[in-house]
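subagent[fold] <- orchestrator: predict structure for attached chain, return tokens only, no commentary.
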Amino acid sequence: MTGARPAARPPLRIVLCDDERMVRTALRVILEAEADLEVVGEAATGAEAVPLVRSLAPDVVLMDIRMPGMDGIRATEQIIATMARPPRIVVVTTFENDAHVYDALRAGAAGFLLKRADPDELIGAVRLVARGDSLLFPAAVRSLAAAHAAAAAPATAPWIARLTDREADVLRLMATGLSNHEVSERLGVGPQTVKTHVASVLTKTGSRDRTQAVIAAYEGGFIMKKG
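subagent[fold] -> orchestrator:
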């Protein structure tokens, strides 16, 4: 007698927010071709997206960064601030060096995706952020963060001294865009050990997630001083 077959994992639930219907349709077609992905709602503006996301509680939101009325940055802020368990939000932009991207990341977005990304990149991005990793273009984040840090002229953050050597190594690798699995391979330690170090880094930097920790690393002078 064989044991019971494990239940299939439910598909990741996704909400699309873009003011162009054709863009939303194209995204839906690409995503729903995958058995593990399901588009559960669409919004044409940030003002529509906020209540929709609250009611549907999806796993991932693809959020256009530039929309009339409430833009993707403000919508991201409201979703993150008003939900106990907010979804992972990926902002979508035309230009990699869009200064608005940095504001969206600081608002709580898990990462950003370029509108010219191919279908495989889009699908991979949704799966990546859904499992807790960040979606960053290290060179773009580095240049944007450096500009913000230079404008603010921040002092070195006190949390840097509280990092252990291994936590510092993990944060440095996170800032290059590596996933937990890639950090594990690079450092030669188990994935659970990496998760433990990441959790400690988040606590010490006062960050909600990996993306926030990377931003803290740049703005707090960790990359400039230690990198």
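orchestrator: received. Logging for downstream: The longest helix spans residues 138-152. DSSP finds eleven helices and five strands in the chain.
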